[in-house]
Amino acid sequence: MATKGIEAVFLETHNWGKAAKFFQALGFELEFSTDHNSGQLRNGDGPTCSSPRSQRLRSLTCRSS
Fold first, then answer.
1. Are 6 and 64 in contact (CB under 8 A)?
2. Which of 46, 39, 44 lies closest to 61, judged by CA?
3. Which terminus of the chain has a lower count of CB atoms within 10 Å, N or C?
């Protein structure tokens, strides 16, 4: 089976703020953040990382464009 690369990476974090700062240090820009500790980051025209509102443990999904 051939692959075309990585489509998505799923991460879990206990702290959205620290995860957002980590990705900002990698060059991602915060597109929006909510008052319930979720949001979305984007790296130019490339991948996005988002954290939906969910339980205490946050899932962070990074997808290519």
1. yes
2. 39
3. N
Bridge partners of residue 48, in order along the sequence: 42, 63
Residue 50 CA to residue 63 CA, distance in Å, equals: 9
Distance CA 49, CA 47 (A): 7
State which residues of the chain have pLDDT below 50.
57
Specify the pLDDT at position 25: 93
Which amino acid belongs to residue 2?
Answer: A
**37, 40, 65 from 18: Cα distances, Å:** 11, 14, 24
Contact 64, 13 (CB under 8 A): no
Inter-residue contact 37 to 20 (CB < 8 Å) = no
